[in-house]
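Appendix B. Chain record.
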Amino acid sequence: MAEAESILKPASAVSLGQRLVALDAHRGFIMVLMAIDHASYFVARVHSGEFWGTALPVYPTAFWFWTRWITHVCAPGFFFLMGIGMVLFADARLKAGWDEGRVTRFLVIRGLLLVVLQLLVENRAWAVGSLVVDPGVMVIRGGGVPGGGTDGMIYLGVLFALGGVMVFWAFVRRAPLWSIGLISLASAVATQALTPGPDHTGVLYSPLVRMLVIPGRTNIWLVFYPLLPWLGATGMGLVFGKLLERDVERAGRVAGWTGLGFLVLFVILRAIGGFGNLHEVPAGAMGFLNVTKYPPSLSFLAFTLGMNLILIALWMRIEPRLQNIYHPLLVFGRVALFFYLLHLWVYALLGLFFTGGSSLVTMYGFWLLGLLILYPFCYQYNRFKHKKPLTSLWRFF
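Structure tokens predicted for this chain:
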């Protein structure tokens, strides 16, 4: 109980043994949102793909559009929070007596573990969910995945990118803040410049190019999250984590104002069109918000990172109201990797009852059911892992 109280104690500065409840709450919040998208895939049998070079998704109703759109904050939030977590983890371990080399090795191992979990655990859940669909039922909105080739699939999704990006920043995290910021900006701009146009959608780029820059399919390789486009979100997290180390209250104010600045940038990019969008801006309000995710356009990053920063600032303002170890967002947010892997299997298994798909309302009902199933497992796992030593593999999750 004393451990729980120390974890929940508000902090004006980050120090050894403390957690920022606001970050746990935000992590839990975006995990819950992410589960909506995956429940849609496994239960409703509907998914969207906002890929470069192919048509953006068209939605039959606004309800379907908003169901997809609200989940866009999740992936950038994962990368941003990972950058923050790397800074706070290193600070805590150094104060616990680790040296810099040991911290770097731990982060590299954890990054490589994420890639292994992508291949051995996550991909099997997607396979189970895909094999039990009635023929012709699955609805994929959008123009499809660029590329092509022979059948078979080695899927590289968000865990692959999180792991690869963590390995990169593990070696570069101690660079001056200005250089981290420059690398982050360069990765976002380079993505826009290197992403080809629609006339290249059928090109079978090499697997290495897919993994590094251009998402799509080349024979058995299917890459949704290449590394370069997501370096910047984690780099921004590193910068914000350094600010948190120095002054939590100031960091909260900076997060709010920076988030608003990003939203203004999003409006400007969409209003002007062209560079930074990767697609022409469709007409109408929903078209204005319908942005390219694979790879993330500058407008996508501006909006989603802006929303993440504003939400973090809001969580920090209401942090005293979150002081409850049973709060669902904290329970989910403190075991994010465990939640991620388990929730895919939970919804894949629930999807066995919906081989012909479901309505949107039914999908939301089973999304909530999945969260109820996940809650006790996540709560108990959090208690379990905090009893383990700092070097335990269980703490990776």
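Further analysis of this model is presented in Appendix C.
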